Amino acid sequence: MLKKFLFLFLIIIFLFSKNSPVFALSLDEEISALSKQIQELETSIAPLKKESTDLKSKINSAKSQIASTETKISSLASKLIDTEADLEVQKTLFSQRVRQYYINSKKYSSFHFFLQNSHATELLRQYSLFQTIISRDRDIITNFVSDISKLNQNKANLESEKTKLAKLKSSLESRFGFLSGEIQKAETYKAELSKKQQALIAEKTAMFNTSVGDVSSSDDPASRSDYNPGFSPAFAAFSFGAPHRKGMSQYGALGRAQSGQNYETILKAYYGDIRLEKIDTNGSIKTSVGTLSFEDNYLVGIAEMPASWGDKGGYEALKAQAIAARTYALNYTNNLAGSICVTEACQVYSKSRLASPGRWKQAVEDTRGIVVKSAATSKIFSTMYASTSGGATYGYTAQGHSTPQLWDTKCGNQSCWPIEAYEKVSGSPWYYKGWYKTRSNVSAGRSHPWLNQEEFSDIINAVLYFSKTNDQSHLSQIQNCLGSCDSNAWSRDELRRQVGDKGGPVSSVNSVSVDYSTSGVTKNVRLSTDKGDFTFDATVFKDIFTLRSPGAITIKSSLFNIEKK
Asked: How much of the chain is helix, strand and coil, in % rounded to 5?
C-alpha cells in the first residue's frame, strides 16, 4: 500500500510541477472549441448556403485542431512512461523516509523526556528537531490522499476527453462525406435559381442607354418624387444617376458648360491628372460596319450627346464629348480590339447623325486631333462617360491612369450635394428618379414606382430574412411579375412565417431614412417598424429590393434614397 502511495505521489509532483503540462483545462478548452467547430458546420450546411470552400476550410481547421490535441495527448503519455523509470529510484528513498518517520514518532515521548533529566538541554534540542521533522513528514503524507484523489480524477478526465475526441473525429469524417455530396447538390440547385433570378435582375436593371444619345429622353412625371400615387402611406426608392457612374457625366458636363467652364476644365474635372494633346487623326478606323474616315465620317456620326445642347449653353460640353469620344475610340482600337462596334456596347455611330449632325460637327472640327492623355503615363486611356452619375462619380483605372472619385457639385465636395450638383443644374431627367419601367417600356401593370404599406413591409421582411440567413432562393417577386412568377418564391404569408423568429414579421413601417457615404454610395437604410428599429446594409437592401419588388420597380444606382409620403 505504501509503494502505491509513493508511486502516485511522485506522479502528482511531476504533473503539477512548473515544467509539467497542465492538460485538464487545455484539453477541455480544445474539445469545447472543436465542438463549436462542428456546430458551426451544422449551422452552415442547414440552409446549404455556405460556399463549399468555406465549409472545407472549417473542416480542415477542425481536423488540424484534432491532430494537435492528439499530439499533446501522445506527448503526455510518453512523459508518464519516462516518469515511471525515475520513480523506481525515488520509491526507495521515500520508503526510507517514511520508515524513519515511524521510528522518530516513537522515539520520544513526554514521559521519556521527564525521566531523562540529565543532559536535558541537548535532549530538548533533539526532541524539538525530531518534532519538526515528524510534523513536516506528517503533513506531506497527510496530503497524499487529496493529491491521489485529484490525480485519479484528472486521469479519468483525460480518458473521457480522449474518448470524446475520438467520437468527434469520427463524426467529423462522417459529416465531411455527407457535406461533400450535399454541397454539390446545393451548388447545382443554387445555380439553377441564380439563372432565373439573374434574368429578372438583368431585365430590371437594363433600363436605359449609358449615354444620353442623339435625343435626350423626355421626363416622366410619374418617376418624380412629387408624384401623387393616390394612397398613403406610400414608399418609393429613388436612384441618383446610373448606370456605371464612371468618367465624364454628360449632364454634368452640360451643367458645367452652362456655368461657364470650358472643355479643358470639364475634362480635367472628370478624368483627373491629364493633359490635352493634338495628334494626327486624319486616317481611318475599322468598325463593325466597315472602315470609315476617322474624323470626317466616324466621329461626325457619333450619336452620344444631343447636338441641340450647343444652342442651350452647352457647346463646351459638345467639345468635351468630341474629345472623349475620339480618345475612347483610339484607345479601344489600339489596346482592346482591331475594330470598334457601333452600338452602345462601344460608342453609338449613327448614319442619321452623320446626315444631320448640327453643331456636333462643329465641335468635332473645332477639336480636331485633340485627345486626352494621362499626365503620369503620357498615354491615351479609356475615357469612359455616361449620362448621369447622380452628382458623384466613381474613380477607375485604365491603362495605368486613375481618375478621381468626384462629388460633381458647384462647391466641389459633398457639402452642397444634392442641391447644387451640376446634373441638377442642367436638369437631367435621370438625376433623381424612381424606376418602374424596363428598357423596352414594360411596366407589368405598374403606373408609378410607389409601394403601399403591405408591399413595402413584404420587401422589408425579405431583406430581414436575407440578412439573417444569406439565402435569397425564395425571395423573387410574387406580383406583377416580369414574365412568369418564380414558383419557388415564397408568398407574403409564408415569408412572414419564415421571418417570425428572425426579428419579424414586419407589418408596418413608420419611418425610413438612409446614410450616405463620403465615397458616393448609400451606406445604410434605417427603418422604424412595428417590430422595432432596423439598420440594413444598403447593398443588401438594394439587391433584395430589386429582386422582390413588383413589376419593373428597382433601385438603379448604388447612390439612392427611400422616401415615405
From this structure: 50, 15, 35
